[in-house]
Automatic annotation (TrEMBL):
<dbReference type="Pfam" id="PF13469">
    <property type="entry name" value="Sulfotransfer_3"/>
</dbReference>
<dbReference type="InterPro" id="IPR052736">
    <property type="entry name" value="Stf3_sulfotransferase"/>
</dbReference>
<protein>
    <recommendedName>
        <fullName>Sulfotransferase</fullName>
    </recommendedName>
</protein>
<dbReference type="InterPro" id="IPR027417">
    <property type="entry name" value="P-loop_NTPase"/>
</dbReference>
Length: 297
């Protein structure tokens, strides 16, 4: 595959802090079949080859009965074919990844510094770039002719590196009131640690630490956002998107210069009517958690 594949078929990358509506936006856009978003099997098996497709299909069928009805950290429905963020794949490939903070919460600060800011390890950036490019090439081979659609809050701090890998990438940024986001992020972190920790029970994330982390990630995103050409970036507020999602998606397509087919709009409207308007990202109590598959922390 040529190194400039992304110039002809630019990926669309959704960024924004955790709990800002990135998942809802991802699934809504993914209803358009011009896009290809990673599935659970794609991120659990990020090193396979096309000739293993039938085996993966059998694995998908085997996993379905074992999965919880909702994500571990909230009440959002999930299936083996639900769009997933590629951060899980990067973690499985051995790259610096924010997912590792859920597995090793007592090293949370060091893990996040390395994964999000490439601090603490001289080769962190190179390892991350190699893993991300590997995964993207795998996606392009698996979904030929389709635009790769990713959402990943961790990518909010990696815009310069994403642009270095994919110069023509299109970006969608979603923001939400910090007063809503920060406490929700706290709950998400604590529930994920309860479910996935390999170090036993870890201290909960306090509000001050969550607020500082939100401020640091947002400041990096604000500083890097102008690096993306204006015609290749769109911003949306969760408070605007949630009440009028179809209108907001219209604006995203126009802002990125993408054509939206009648079929795509119909499928996105159907997604909203069936799932979106009953979307329930409420955090569930840690006591209700029963660890299962390694879904998004």
């Amino acid at each position: 595959m040529p190194n400039d594949w992304s110039l002809a078929l630019p990926p669309v990358l959704i960024v924004g802090f955790w709990r800002s509506g990135t998942t809802l936006l991802h699934e809504m856009l993914a209803a358009d079949r011009r896009f290809a978003a990673p599935t659970l099997i794609d991120v659990l098996c990020p090193t396979d080859a096309p000739y293993l497709r039938k085996a993966k299909q059998r694995l998908t069928g085997a996993i379905a009965p074992l999965m919880p009805a909702t994500r571990v950290v909230d009440n959002v429905a999930v299936t083996p074919r639900s769009p997933q963020e590629e951060e899980a794949a990067l973690c499985h490939l051995g790259a610096p990844s924010s997912f590792a903070a859920a597995y090793f919460p007592k090293r949370r600060d060091a893990i996040l510094a390395e994964a999000l800011f490439f601090d603490g390890a001289p080769d962190a950036r190179e390892r991350w770039r190699a893993a991300h490019e590997h995964f993207m090439r795998l996606m392009v081979v698996k979904y030929p002719g389709r635009c790769i659609l990713l959402k990943n809050p961790s990518n909010s701090t990696r815009i310069p590196d994403l642009l270095a890998l994919y110069p023509s990438a299109l970006f969608v940024r979603i923001d939400r009131d910090p007063a809503e986001v920060v406490p929700s992020f706290q709950r998400m972190t604590d529930v994920a640690n309860e479910a996935f920790s390999l170090q036993g029970r870890a201290p909960p994330l306090d509000r001050e630490a969550a607020t500082r982390f939100h401020a640091r990630v947002t400041a990096k995103l604000d500083a890097d956002w102008p690096l993306v050409a204006p015609e290749r970036r769109v911003e949306v507020l969760y408070e605007t998107f949630a009440p009028a999602p179809l209108r907001s998606v219209d604006a995203i397509y126009r802002g990125l210069g993408l054509e939206r087919s009648v079929e795509a709009r119909r499928r996105q409207k159907r997604f909203w009517l069936r799932r979106g308007r009953t979307w329930s990202p409420q955090s569930i109590a840690a006591a209700q958690i029963r660890p299962s598959l390694p879904l998004s922390p």
